[in-house]
Design brief:
Elements (H helix, E strand, L loop, with lengths): L10 E5 L6 E6 L3 H20 L2 H17 L1 H12 L3 H27 L2 E3 L9 E9 L2 E5 L7 H13 L2 E5 L5 H14 L6 E3 L4 H8 L5 E5 L2 H14 L3 E4 L4 E5 L5 H13 L9 E7 L3 H14 L18 H16 L3 E4 L15 E4 L16 E7 L2 H9 L6 E5 L3 H8 L6 E4 L20 E2 L4 H6 L2 E9 L16 H13 L3 H11 L1 H4 L4
The protein binds nicotinamide-adenine-dinucleotide.
Length: about 525
């Protein structure tokens, strides 16, 4: 049952965070538009499903080739709207989507095909079961601004290939790139009503959650995710929630300091730290602590901060003033509680209002907000630990559980510790890049969310599993039907022994005792 949500429609502006230039203004979708879009999607979806998976895979193939041809333009548009360097837009957005399409083109047919389900229960042997992978119908996607192309596109491609229609509500900060995704999909052959974009603020997203969608994939903050989960619970709307992270990096005493410090600096500052999988805090074995701090500071100071359109830029602006204030307040709180700022620590006003220097913090402890709350900015707090047990305890002492990384020269040791960490993903000797492995499931535990996107698990989330069961003896009444009579319970006791007793003699006796059930007169 849909919930009617009324609100005033507001105009939204897409602003280049590096320059403040207004890239475009759009009307946000109001409740009427949301309802109408979902109704159009519902009406169009059966035909899209009827096209068949081979056709939809062909569409994905065309989409992939069109995107490949336009990669440079798409990357530049992402940079203009979201601020990240063009090279990062190519690698962490365009490449991720090309590869997500590759995964679906190569695997969707096999994963989604109808399969026979062999039966294990001997009492029901005379049946043939099949599993069908059916689309939900209309999938709503609500996405954030930090990966404005790769997050909605990879989720939408999975939903579309199954035969769903998609209604996307992108972040109000990055609506234009979502409209570009729509244009690319249309050109590839996705019908207008099968992939629709509803620009707007949170209220538009709330209206989509309250609409007649059949499934929701939400990516965003924990606070919004919780609100959505409450509303979804009212009408039992199935949801995937991809929420925040506070990913720890553990540097063991046998790690290569040069490699691990480069990994820490990239993992913490990629996309100016605005990545759900970014290294949010770093625990380093005490024996490496001074050398590791020095290496991170030296590398952080060398990073080139600026407009992402400049090819030499490594770190762009933060998306919004709000985001900078969060970063500043966490640095202030850490300083007041005794942390030392070894690199960065402040805005770079001379470049623009939302540029923040890549910042390394030492002498941090678990009382500080920077060690417990998601920062989503270019901060790298580093704290020492004594042994592996303490490292695992520190990593698990968190409300979040999206991902973690372990750095060691001993892969077996890294993989052993990985099993003890409560997170959706643990990487050994790298961070963040798991999002680009299209085969790998992406998602968290604890406050980091529910469900998975990407890989076969992401595809499963877009599927309503149906079980079809046919009886192979349609002219026979079943022995468990009515007409029990006085002896049926005793016969069934023996029948259970026939099925599950271990000694052969007991089985044989039970077989004889239960045989009467076959000839019992059924109603
Ligand atoms: P956000 O929660 O503010 O917004 C996300 C989306 O939800 C936006 O489109 C927004 O308009 C919409 N929204 C806001 N209020 C809503 C409501 N009441 N009902 C429905 N929709 C509503 O998050 P954000 O600031 O855009 O993104 C940053 C957050 O996203 C961070 O916490 C980050 O960790 C998280 N994130 C998680 C992943 C992941 O895969 N786990 C990936 C990227 C970002």
């Amino acid at each position: 049952m849909a919930t009617n949500i009324e609100f005033a429609v507001s105009r939204i502006a897409s602003v280049n965070p590096a320059t403040g230039e207004v890239l475009g203004e759009l009307d946000g979708a109001g409740p009427t538009e949301v309802r109408a879009a979902v109704a159009r999607a519902r009406a169009a979806q059966p035909d899209w499903n009827a096209c068949g998976i081979r056709h939809r895979i062909q569409v994905l193939r065309r989409f992939q080739q069109i995107l490949l041809a336009r990669k440079a333009d798409v990357a530049r548009h992402i940079t203009q709207e979201a601020g990240k360097p063009v090279a990062e837009a190519l690698v962490t957005e365009v490449l991720v989507v090309l590869d997500a399409a590759r995964f679906l083109i190569n695997n969707a047919f096999a994963i989604l095909r109808e399969v026979k389900l062999p039966h294990g229960n001997p009492a029901l042997k005379a049946k043939s079961g099949r599993i069908l992978h059916e689309p939900y119908g209309v999938v709503g996607i609500i996405s954030p601004w930090n990966y404005p192309f790769s997050i909605p596109a990879s989720e939408a491609l999975a939903a579309l290939v199954v035969g769903n229609a998609v209604v996307l509500k992108p972040s109000e900060l990055t609506p234009l790139i979502a409209l570009e995704l729509r244009a690319l999909l249309r050109e590839a052959g996705v019908p207008d009503d099968i992939f629709q974009v509803l620009p707007g603020e949170g209220a538009t997203g709330a209206a989509l959650v309250g609409s007649e969608i059949d499934k929701l994939v939400f990516t965003g903050s924990v606070a919004t995710g919780r609100r959505i989960a409450q509303i979804a619970a009212e009408r039992l709307l199935p949801v995937v929630l991809e929420l925040g992270g506070k990913d720890p990096m553990l540097v063991l005493e046998d790690a290569d300091v040069d490699v691990a410090s480069s990994g820490a600096v990239w993992g913490a500052f990629v996309n100016a730290g605005q990545a759900c999988l970014s290294v949010e805090l770093c625990y380093v074995h005490r024996s490496l602590y001074p050398a590791f701090l020095d290496a991170c500071c030296e590398k952080a100071r060398k990073l080139r901060v600026g407009n992402g359109m400049d090819p030499s830029t490594e770190i762009g602006p933060l998306i919004h003033e709000r985001q900078v204030r969060v970063v500043e307040s966490q640095v202030e709180d850490a300083k007041q509680r005794g942390a030392r700022v070894l690199a960065g620590g402040a805005r770079l006003h001379e470049i623009g209002p939302t540029f923040f220097a890549p910042t390394v913090l030492a002498d941090v402890d678990r009382t500080m907000r920077v060690m417990r709350e998601e920062t989503f900015g270019p901060l790298l707090p580093i704290m020492p630990f004594g042994d592996d047990g303490e490292a695992v305890r520190l990593a698990n002492d968190s409300d979040y559980g999206l991902a973690a990384s372990i750095w060691t020269r001993d892969r077996a040791r890294g993989e052993h510790l990985a099993r003890q960490i409560n997170a959706g993903t643990v990487m050994v000797n790298d961070a963040v890049s798991c999002f680009s492995i299209s085969e790998a499931p992406h998602g968290g535990v604890k406050s980091s969310g529910l469900g998975r996107t990407h890989g076969r698990w992401g595809l499963d989330e877009m599927v309503r599993v149906k079980y079809v069961d046919s009886d192979l003896l349609p002219r026979m009444k079943k022995i468990w039907w009515f007409g029990y009579g006085g002896g049926f319970a005793a016969e069934m006791e023996s029948f259970l022994d026939l099925l599950f007793a271990r000694p052969l003699r007991e089985k044989l006796i039970a077989g004889v005792r239960s045989a009467g059930a076959l000839w019992r007169k059924k109603l």
